[in-house]
């Protein structure tokens, strides 16, 4: 009797709790004024491609260049397995080095270096270390900070009878030893050895030196040096300042690993996700389509982990079974280089794509979920989107293979949203054919790309107004206005107000490319430029950040009044139903200040104290490494009434964030 009464009391409590939750949800929803339009709550994110040394030498924190001796002349003329390494024999020592392939650490990592320290010259006349070894120059040098810890690792195999003692050091360009430690080979099989280095001085150009100080012969591979202070202190992690800069943007998603990098320069160069997971010594390195080398150290696990760390949804893009139509440089003759996987290989490739979804979302007990768990992430990554294809030529071969992939994913994983592609331009044959394929297959979303002059953005604010809401939603995966001056950024801000207005049909949007290293750019229009010590966000970056951090999930027309005939003006009003905040964005791409009338009467519970952030300046102004803060937004307190006039400065983006009472 007591047990039944106890259960009844608990059941009554649960019912009351459920009712309260429903009423609370209804109350929250009631705070959203009528007349608005529900828009995507994951509208703005990041697109990452390993272009402009964005990964190796960039956000991937590995400090050793050519760590596995896999560089070759097909990547850049003159490159070879010895590139970015220098042979050393201080103290009148002598020996020899060679690169061999007969017994590698792993078949996916075929090259390794053999060092034969024949004689160590311990002469009194020599000051400093004596030995035989090699020095790595890093990516334009290595930056170290005094007192910080740097984690060194290497795979060694002893080839002589006696163990070999290795002196591991960080040295300045003048030979000053900043940090050193010792390891000793002990195994005739490949074995990983680790140590730490703590520099006594800070230097922005440092080299890693590996010196055999006792006689002997050994093989080595996968020579690695990482700062302990990576983003979130992840091993095999990301450069902390750069990753934090992106995290602070609060992107809703991250698309990776490309771009043209995905479909590759020929079939052999397609980006295969399985080659990028597991221990780094087992990953497959290859030529980067942009003319350098990719270690795959920043692989699928690291991409997914970064997304999770910053609260962004992962959006991987896989090849559609065809290579880039410009493979082999055929862009010079009209892009005739597309090659398609043979049909007898398609079943295996389709399974590869299905395996990706299992790897990301499957239980730790599944075949591919267990590999994710083995890497340290037993919980699923909660993948929702998969892009198939990138800017592909809409050939019959493409259509056939894309259709096979789409139908297989749809059948096996209906919970996954597949994003198709409609070519590299905003119109034309591939664009029209891509949409034709989308309509025939009833795709849920397609990926549009366009790079175009800034004036186009001002004159085409209505682009998505007339899109058919019954057809596929749009992911604007790549766009930019061919420049990093303030005028370019403000033109993109105009476009983003139109994107917000059409946030019911445009599901996602991401500027491209994201990162570019000074002296190593293959693409001049980028969001953030960097070198080994400095980050240089562009005005375009600040526009993107202001829109990302001030996004909403409801859009309201007729809040801001201005002359619609003036194409230099644009505005949008959104509300974030989670916070109740109302966000107004006003853009003036003109050369003089212009007035806009704001009417907030539909937002009943607003407070009068708001935040105003303005990005403005000379339209020709840029941020540079000498002056990275030339153009930055400024935030101040701002009072708002139910109705007020706002004078938008010339060449500006203004964001007013208004809180409402709960």
Automatic annotation (TrEMBL):
Top class in the EC scheme: hydrolase
Domain Alpha-L-arabinofuranosidase C-terminal as annotated: residue spans: 477-652
Keywords assigned by UniProt, alphabetized: Hydrolase, Signal
EC number assigned by the record: 3.2.1.55
Entry superkingdom: Bacteria
Catalysed reactions, semicolon-separated: Hydrolysis of terminal non-reducing alpha-L-arabinofuranoside residues in alpha-L-arabinosides
Transmembrane segments: none
Gene3D superfamilies according to UniProt: Galactose-binding domain-like, Glycosidases, Golgi alpha-mannosidase II
Family from the record: Belongs to the glycosyl hydrolase 51 family.
Name of the protein in question: non-reducing end alpha-L-arabinofuranosidase
